[in-house]
Amino acid sequence: MRVDVMTALVSFERVFEVLDLEPLVREAPDPVDLPDQAVSVDLDDVTFRYPSAAEVSLASLEQGAGDRLGGSDVLRGVTFHVGPGSLVALVGPSGAGKTTITSLVARLYDPTSGTVRLGGVDLREASNRSLREVVGMVTQEAQLFHDTIRANLSYARPEATDAELWEALRAAQVATLVESLPEGLDTVVGDRGHRLSGGEKQRLAIARLLLKGPGLVILDEATAHLDSESEVAVQRALDSALAGRTALVIAHRLSTVRGADLILVVDEGRIVEQGRHSELLAAGGLYAELYRTQFSEQPTPAAG
Ligand SMILES: Nc1ncnc2c1ncn2[C@@H]1O[C@H](COP(=O)(O)OP(=O)(O)OP(=O)(O)O)[C@@H](O)[C@H]1O
Fold first, then answer.
1. Strands 262-267, 270-275: parallel, antiparallel or unpaired by DSSP?
2. Whose CA is nearest to atom 29 of ligand 1?
3. Rounded to the nearest whole angstrom, what is the distance from the C-alpha of residue 218 to the centroid of ligand 1?
4. Which of 2, 5, 30, 295 has the fewest CB atoms in 10 Å of its CB?
5. Quick check: CB of 92 below 6 Å from ligand 1?
């Protein structure tokens, strides 16, 4: 992944913005298609370090250099299993490695050692096309292209009919807004177009995700404060987007951690605790502490 690493660094932001993923790592000669459904996610003893700037420039000149030079490991011995259709919440202090885990699951990078599998297939063996179809991402800063709403949505599925676009808009709680615009689906949005609120942009991004229909959703939950009406609408939209899919959520909301099938507590690049909300709360460890400091919208029952 010599030159690809450079591409990765340059387009990392953009990749996250556009939801659909351009894999930045090398495809195997005889790639395998990932299953076209809710997939399991398995990380087995994953270690990862980001390539340094020096490595990237050297590696682009000299094959193999990137494998020899090193920064520090940001993930160490990460192992977990997520069943198909489960909702997994990643929690942990800032810089713990949550985003990095999601980047490996989306194969923006390959692990330094260990394996990442979706639906049992090692991502190094997976076809880029099926990876793009199976993995969908929604980030905090939902970005739209400076183009019409129709173009922004169709990007996810060019063959979608208007009826399908409206169905996705309804499920994403944003159809009423689009109907109210004089040019409807043909309204130009984005930086210089019709101005949308943060919540509206997120819901359009969710509509795009619904059209794509990925088996795995990676979601970076909003920390930004939305007004409460918008918050409820976004939450409803997300509920329909996550139903029937595997979801990996970088969680900031109490309702998400409470409802998660599995919570992975990440600290300094390791999974330090895993389990459900009540178990982890009772264990009285890092999760219980994070719960008090990061998720304390309600009084904490006596824990541990
Ligand atoms: N592209 C990158 N290149 C080099 N180091 C990086 C890169 N992205 C993240 N890191 C480093 O990797 C470590 C883990 O970061 P990561 O973003 O995965 O943490 P996080 O748990 O998602 O944090 P936050 O909650 O603040 O988003 C940090 O030390 C961070 O500085």
1. antiparallel
2. 95
3. 16
4. 30
5. yes
| Residue whose structure tokens are 């959520």 | 249
What are the residue boundaries of the structural domains of the chain, listed by start? 2-294
Query: Going by CA atoms, what residue is nearest to atom 17 of ligand 1?
Result: 99
Mean pLDDT to the nearest integer, 146-173:
91
Exposed, middle or buried: residue 99 (CB in 10 Å: 0-12, 13-18, 19+)? middle
297 pLDDT exceeds 80? no
β-partners of residue 91 are 265
What ipTM describes this predicted complex?
Answer: 0.97
Q: Is the pLDDT of residue 118 over 50?
A: yes
Query: Does the C-beta of 50 come closer than 6 Å to ligand 1?
Result: yes
Minimal-distance CA residue to ligand 1 atom 9: 100
Average pLDDT over residues 165-185: 93
d(CA 206, CA 212): 10
Cβ 102 under 6 angstroms from ligand 1: no
What's the rounded mean pLDDT across residues 266-288?
Answer: 96
Q: By three-state DSSP, how is residue 282 classified?
A: helix
Protein residue closest via CA to atom 30 of ligand 1: 95
Residue 58 pLDDT level (bands cut at 50, 70, 90):
low
CB 226 within 8 A of CB 199: yes
